[in-house]
Design a protein that fits this description.
Elements: E1 10-13, E2 18-21, E3 29-34, H1 45-64, E4 67-72, H2 90-98, H3 102-119, H4 135-147, E5 151-154, E6 157-160, H5 162-166, E7 201-206, E8 222-224, H6 228-238, E9 242-248, H7 252-267, E10 272-278, E11 281-283, E12 286-287, H8 298-303, H9 315-323, E13 331-333, H10 335-354, H11 368-380, H12 385-403, H13 411-428, H14 435-460, H15 464-476, E14 479-484, E15 487-492
Parallel strand pairs: 3-4, 3-9, 9-10, 11-13
Antiparallel strand pairs: 1-2, 5-6, 6-7, 7-8, 11-12, 14-15
Length: about 500
């Protein structure tokens, strides 16, 4: 019997603002769509946190026994990336600056996206469609909306008529905004004055002569609007009515609001039962920003090559750090916070290693059934990973009691306890036991620092041949030394 038949899962629905019991449209099946990256630059740490939240949600559905179709798109088309942007689209701009074809830019950063997610232990989605692969579907949706009288064409561009739609529907149902108070939702481009209402948004834009990425359509050679691709891909693979749509909190308006409007204009009913939004990640209490320098890339956590970090951290430590906060909560990344997370992570891994040496007894002095259900209760409460982690550390306490012979479990209770611990740590949270690797890293650091000390002594004695030999042999081993005003640091290439 699947676990979902015995567990009651509640999900916070952004549409209602409340936690609701999850009831799938089709029993035993879950359809989930999550907005993926626009691949014009390296994926940033905030993206990783958002996608990690939905990775854990995906994992928990699988753990409960649901047949889950998880669709996460790749935005690889030079469309209106942001309706208030005042320049060229970001993929085309990157291609122009680096003298590349747009698809070269797309390929480079799609590979980077996959590499980073693999590094942090993500499961791949069931389907990963691309926007450029669904231009036909997007054009067909525009045709349907025009037929319903809720879109209009002007000078080769097509706009969604928000004011007309709002007469029979509620534009603002997700974000809680009043249409009369909304700012214009399109960027300041030539042709913006063609719109009937400031709130209208583009479904299709006529391409100017210099626009690189363009496709033929009944209205013009052009490109789809920002919001259209997700409507096309989600409905193609999950149907006109599906269970869950997720993304970052920043997508709630206008992106997801416009998706709802497009879907309802086409089908006459709401497209999604549960809207889920993950919160943002800050760095040292401030918004991450490349322009201000308050920024850290995912790989820099692993290499330690960042001014914000005192050392390198393993991917599972970084993952464990992020899962210590609920996905709907703001999370602040600091060096002290991830150092504390590292200690907790290795404590958890050390406890799991002890399970192999524990011998079951003839009686149980610990209530494993209640503890097990408390783990499920945590995840059933809107995927509350920090509460689950707290329960897992209660399991660590149990392990220490068993290891010290201060408590006993029957063979049946012990097997249930061990299976529950390992299932939640490895299958649901997606962590890997890097205890040994972590210890080896500490030993490696010790050896390299010893060699750095010997090199410094050689340099002080003006024995530059020995100094250079140490440096060159470390380089041959893939260890790069960096001399700075605060001393010598190293990185592993």
């Amino acid at each position: 019997m699947p676990l979902y038949t015995t567990q009651t899962l509640k999900i916070y629905n952004s549409l209602s603002g409340e936690k609701e019991i999850f009831t799938p449209i089709h029993q035993g099946n879950v359809g989930m769509y999550v907005c993926g990256p626009t691949v014009y630059s390296n994926v940033h740490l905030g993206n990783v946190r958002t996608f990690m939240s939905f990775d854990v949600i995906f994992r928990y559905f699988l753990h409960l026994g649901y047949k889950t179709r998880y669709v996460r798109n790749i935005t690889d088309v030079g469309h209106i990336v942001d309706d208030v942007d005042d320049g060229e689209d970001k993929i085309a701009k990157k291609a122009r600056l680096e003298q590349l074809e747009p698809m070269e830019v797309v390929q480079q950063y799609t590979v980077d996206f996959h590499d980073i997610l693999n590094l942090f232990g993500f499961l791949p989605p069931s389907i990963e469609p691309t926007a450029t692969g669904h231009i036909i579907e997007q054009i067909e949706i525009v045709k349907k909306i025009i037929e319903k009288g809720l879109a209009y064409e002007v000078n080769g561009s097509v706009y969604f008529d928000v004011v007309k739609y709002n007469k029979t529907n509620n534009y603002g149902i997700l974000s809680g905004r009043n249409i009369d108070e909304m700012l214009a939702n399109t960027r300041d481009l030539d042709g913006q004055n063609d719109k009937k209402n400031a709130q209208d948004f583009a479904l299709w834009k006529k391409a100017e002569p210099e626009h690189i990425m363009r496709w033929p359509s009944p209205w013009s050679d052009g490109f789809p609007g920002w919001h259209l691709e997700c409507t096309a891909m989600s409905t193609k693979y999950l149907g006109n009515h599906f269970d869950i749509h997720g993304g970052g909190m920043d997508l709630k308006f206008p992106h997801h609001e416009c998706e709802i409007a497009q879907n309802e204009a086409c089908t006459g009913h709401t497209p999604v039962n549960y809207w889920m939004h993950a919160n943002m990640l800050t760095l040292n209490g401030k918004k991450m920003s490349k322009s201000t320098g308050n920024n850290i890339l995912p790989r820099e956590i692993i290499t330690g090559e960042s001014e914000f970090l005192s050392k390198a951290f393993s991917p599972s430590v970084a993952r464990f750090f992020m899962l210590q906060a609920h996905y709907r909560s703001n999370l602040d990344f600091t060096n002290d916070a991830i150092l504390a997370a590292e200690k907790g992570f290795y404590r958890l891994m050390e406890a799991l290693d002890k399970l192999d040496d524990i011998k079951p007894g003839t009686t149980s002095t610990l209530d494993i059934s209640s503890w097990k259900q408390s783990c499920y209760d945590a995840m059933n409460d809107d995927f509350n990973s920090p509460i689950l982690i707290a329960q897992l550390f209660e399991g660590v306490r149990f392990i220490n009691l068993l290891n010290d012979n201060s408590a006993t479990l029957t063979i049946g209770d012990f097997k249930m306890f061990e299976k529950t611990m390992r299932s939640f740590v490895f299958d649901v949270l997606g962590l890997k036991n890097e205890k040994t690797a972590g210890n080896n890293n500490e030993k490696l650091e010790g050896v390299v620092h010893l060699l750095i000390g010997m090199r410094n002594e050689a340099r002080a004695n003006k024995d530059f041949a020995m100094s250079d030999q140490i440096r060159d042999q470390l380089i041959a081993l893939g260890i790069q030394l960096k001399d700075g005003k605060d001393g010598t640091s190293f990185s592993i290439q």
